[in-house]
Recover the amino acids of this structure.
């Protein structure tokens, strides 16, 4: 697959899944805007790795909970690239900024979740579209298990915000169809080298063992490269007919039945 001559912006690409996406797009030939909020060193490191892979780009800072900063980020993209072909909305604040159960979550935490996902996507897509003069690919990185379930109580803010994000994907899918712009969401399962590594070691071990032991049929956690591969597929012209969809990229974890012990489900 070649993305030679294409320009991409990946939010939250200083680290984690976004970084993997930036690598994939660069390896495929795209120029990539590497975005971060506070970790400039990590963003510079991602850009250096992008250049090592034969790619090019620049780094740009913005807090995606602030619409004016999102607009400034796209202004910079317009100055550097002139046009945009791929916009991946991936950034997500640290868990401590929103991780609180429904009866305790502060309105500030709630707003952080919604502003960083639904509002950031609303503003970002409206800024990206005028730059997509030759059609384009817009992708949101969601967590559909969080928007569909209620068990992990402190995820209520982000789960609800991701649900709103997924809804926006469908509305924008229709709104931008005639412009040749597709809008889709990718829903990874638990992924290595991401927010997972910021959790206490015991929590990391519990989650990893759960997936390796059976919850993920493929028997391992995902990697940023796994998710990036799916972004790459969507960026290919063969995917031009898919829009408004939420696609799981989770090694089959979303196929498991939570009412039945995993030992019985996997032979
Ligand atoms: N990790 C998983 O297992 C998993 C599973 C399903 C879905 N996802 C989704 O995948 C996406 C990436 O997750 P991740 O775990 O890879 O993330 P991560 O490693 O925690 O990295 C977060 C990224 O977002 C940036 N960021 C944080 N707060 C921001 C803000 N207010 N404004 C702008 N940028 C901000 C960070 O920039 P700095 O480096 O400057 O702080 C960093 O680049 C998220 O949308 C997440 O919901 C992740």
């Amino acid at each position: 697959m070649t993305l030679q001559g294409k320009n991409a912006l990946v939010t939250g690409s200083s680290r984690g899944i976004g970084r993997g996406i930036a690598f994939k797009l660069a390896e495929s030939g795209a120029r990539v805007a590497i975005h971060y909020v506070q970790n400039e060193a990590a963003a510079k490191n991602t850009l250096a790795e992008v250049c090592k892979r034969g790619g090019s780009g620049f780094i740009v800072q913005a807090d995606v909970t602030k619409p004016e900063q999102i607009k400034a980020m796209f202004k910079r993209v317009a100055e550097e690239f002139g046009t945009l072909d791929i916009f991946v909305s991936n950034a997500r604040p640290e868990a401590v900024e929103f991780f609180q159960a429904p009866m305790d979550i502060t309105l500030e935490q709630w707003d952080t979740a919604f502003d960083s996902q639904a509002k950031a996507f609303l503003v970002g897509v409206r800024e990206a579209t005028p730059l997509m003069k030759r059609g384009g690919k817009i992708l949101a990185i969601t967590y559909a298990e969080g928007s569909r379930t209620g068990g992990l109580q402190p995820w209520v803010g982000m789960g609800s915000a991701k649900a709103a994000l997924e809804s926006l994907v469908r509305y924008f899918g229709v709104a931008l169809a005639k412009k040749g712009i597709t809008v889709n969401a990718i829903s990874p399962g638990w992924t290595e080298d991401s927010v997972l590594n910021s959790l206490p070691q015991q929590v990391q071990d519990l989650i990893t063992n759960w997936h390796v032991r059976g919850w993920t049929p493929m028997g391992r956690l995902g990697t940023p490269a796994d998710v990036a591969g799916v972004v790459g597929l969507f960026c290919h012209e063969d995917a031009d007919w898919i829009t408004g969809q939420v696609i799981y990229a989770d090694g089959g974890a979303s196929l498991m039945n939570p009412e039945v012990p995993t030992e019985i489900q996997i032979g």
